[in-house]
Design a protein that fits this description.
The protein is an alpha/beta fold. The protein contains 9 helices and 11 strands. It is elongated, with a radius of gyration of 23 Å. The two termini are about 40 Å apart.
Amino acid sequence: MSPTAAPVAPGTSILSTEELSSLGRLQLLFHRPHRGDNPGERRSPRTGSSPEFADFRSYSTGDDLRRIDWKAFARFDRLILRLDVAEEEVALNIVLDVSDSMTFGSPAKWLAARRLAAALTLVGLNEADRVAVGVLRKGGPYTPHLRRGGGAGRALSFLSGLEPGGSAGPEDLASLRWLRPGMTVVISDFLVEEPWSGPLAGLRSARHEPVLWQILAPEEEHPDLDGDFVLHDVESAAEMELTVTPKLVREYLDALAEHRQGLIQQVSGAQGRFLNTLSNANLHATVLAGLRAGVLRRS
């Protein structure tokens, strides 16, 4: 079943009232300034007309006379312009894995991923950034880049209407054409063998700050299994019989740690960030992980 944005009944809520109130003082932490298209609340490499001082330079014919610093003129006997920091909109792109593997876990990884996407959307909109949310799937549904006001309700309605299904991987990230330069957060379990380095390098060259946010189920992070099992891959339908022993569990944990280290190296190569949380973590614990990883900060 492919993910679709289904109609949502009025009052559908992904975040509780308490969770919504906890997001008010959070900000996204961009590691470098970005050039936006419209006025906003994010520092830009360009100069503008905000109250925050940036630099001085000598007056040239055609410059705005209102920017002349008359105190500096009285001191140096030459016309000097005061340059201020331009504040512009930045895009936040939230890419959500809605594949079948995300339905695993108690609670399901999918529910935690959707809640995280909703929280990041509201944080971005609160800062007057442009925010778009879409599915990690070639040709999958997505919202336009929304602004605060009506954008929050539209984004939450979109997320509430998604249903998980199918598969997803790095090639799907490379196929997305709705992403704008800014911060691109990919929320997934990332439990695929294919490397992410190519798509991540493509994002970086297109002026994105990539963030890989891994969500695993407690059973995947801390397996408590013993005996004979038949493993069923929900995406490929492949099956495997195996006997789980303490030695096999240790080998699995070593492989998981190696896989995660590979993800860290790949996103670091694109000057991005990696973090991981569990599907049973509450929003407070998830936010703390974002703060520690330098993706979020408190205002």
